[in-house]
Amino acid sequence: MLNAKSPALWISLAVLTLVTRLPFFFVDVIDWDESTFILMGHSLLNGFLPYTYIWDNKPPAIFFLFAGIISLGNDVLVVRIFGALLVFATAAVVYALAQRLHSHRAGVFGAVVYILSMSATVSGQATTSELISTLPVLVALWILVARRDNALWYVAIGALLSFATLVRLNLAFVVIACAPLIAVYQWERGAKECVKALIAYGIGGIAVLLAFMAPYALSGSFPLFWYSVFEAPFAYATTQSGPLANFVQHAFNAMGVRWGFNPPQFAVGVAAWVVGVAGAGLAIKAAMGRDREQRMTLISVLAFVIATGLSIVVSGVAPMHYLIGMLPFMTLLAGIAYAYLAERRLLVAAVATIAVCAVVMLAPVAAEYKTAWQRVGSDKGLMHGPAYDVADYLKASCANSSCKLYLLEDHLAYTLLNVYPPRKIVTHPSNISKPSLLQAEIGAAPTPEAEMRAVLGTHPDFIVKQEKVWYLLPAQEQILEQTLQQHYRLVHEVDGRRIYRATGNQAPRDTL
Q1: For residues 258 and 202, which has the higher predicted lDDT (pLDDT)?
Q2: How far is CA 234 from CA 53, 229, 313, in A?
Q3: In a domain, 379, yes or no
Q4: Are residues 357 and 436 in the same domain?
Q5: For the chain, how many structural domains are there in total?
Q6: Structure pTM?
Q7: Handedness of CA 186, 190, 194, 196 (dihedral sign)
Q8: What is the rounded CA–CA span in Å between residue 147 and residue 156?
Q9: Alpha carbon distance 398, 392 (integer Å)
């Protein structure tokens, strides 16, 4: 097996990451959240603080990060490259934690299974908030269990977890869980050292929070910051499904059987989730006979697992991509289970399990390579998808950002055309149907129906939608269809997206 100090191991993991993610560099929309982050990043680069001109109910760190990424060039391409780097870096920390907890072999297995699993997990090929927040959480965990020489390390842990929370707010549970772990680690050194470590931890976390609050405080927009970062997500989470219902739904999500049977996702469920649970049991059993440091490492990992899991089930909803935040923990534990088999001369069984699951997991990757090859063979551009096709059609009409546009699908096209949504709430299109997010603080009408009238009252030159918009409420759909029939005509259809153009007989806003 490759040695941890050998460049061959890291080159192999890097190649595996690139091969499993490369064809998805060129796809327009994999996850709607990613498209929203790109749009919010563009707004920031154009001089608008997040939430002031367009809006989403996510913390601000991710928007600042995306602004930095897309400033480098082609929006989708650089974002996906950044995502691949995150996957590789996360796999490296998975290796380090599994190696410390068990063995080098466990680390290699865990890292490989993580990279493969990300190729088949829903939204795993996108650069999501779950992927972005995972790395600082894992690095903080690694520092906690391996590097505690002085207070500066605790400042770093606090800063990393604070940043992760300002990418994905529910990770505040991890911030809370980490504090008692720090106290336990430092208790042997005395109460004074314990207090110093906790103060350092708090300083790191508060410093990052203040850094993101400062622009809003200085510009007089702090109430908007507070509402958008704390009040809106809390209101949304507490008006949706409860933790128990979400837990059950995520159990089905993990095995790829929530909406029918999904073979690649089921392979992830077997290779990572089922084997990961077994690995947790084996790690607990093995830790019983080891020294305090080894037991504390396991306790720390399990505490982060529980806190991260809790952050997911209290989120109010249970989309499959939320599990990306748990995946590295499950794969590092799965690595322990595979290593356990190998140690008992069942290496072939361990490798065979991974290999069979990998073949199934890589089916979407193979399909996307086929698409890319066909496009190259037909002299088409590699960048493809409905958002690009819609933008190409509207490019002439929207030259110099001169058109008003309402996209009910593929809102990445706003960025491609350098225009913005007609109202804040539809920055992420489906937010218009979420009553808990329709608040005066962001200029939204109080009901979904009133907000749909307000959006249409901006008199968009073009409206783009599929025949059936899955997230619209019946009353909203009726208002939209009535407006399209009276004031718009269908001018083009591409990839199932219908493009409607205003006829010029728009009704006054108050009659819509």
Answers
A1: 202
A2: 22, 9, 13
A3: no
A4: no
A5: 2
A6: 0.93
A7: negative
A8: 11
A9: 10
